[in-house]
Amino acid sequence: xxxxMKITPLRAGTSEPADRPRLFPCPPDLEPDQIRSFLVxxxxxxxxxxxxxxxxxxxRVNIGWIFRALPGAEPMDHIELLCVPVVEAEEGSPKPxxxxxxxxxxxxxxxxxxxxxxxxxxxxxxxxxxxxxxxESDQTGDEAS
Length: 145
Hints:
By secondary structure, the protein is of the alpha+beta class. The protein has three helices and six strands, in the order ββαββββαα.
């Protein structure tokens, strides 16, 4: 499952787009529980807030984060960046990763409730720090010296 990051410039403090969204490829070794850490490393600071949406199946789903625009990138005063990890859905269109995971979790819970699965075990994965495969190999090489 190849992830991309959909980044949408927003007028600060609103959900009003300031420009069109763009898709950027995520590193191939990036896991879902490392996305936030990866973005914090990239932007150099914590997100301003968590982004969420409502769907037909869910009242509220956290789908990404809002960060301040990078300093020095054009006149970006009063601009924030909505960062949403997306993957290709079954029909081929991009879908927010966390929305897809919420749908899968709900399907699993419904199967468990109907008795199709013996027990319901939900494992919450903690957030892990992102370290690229390159940085890990650099550290291993340094230790060997």
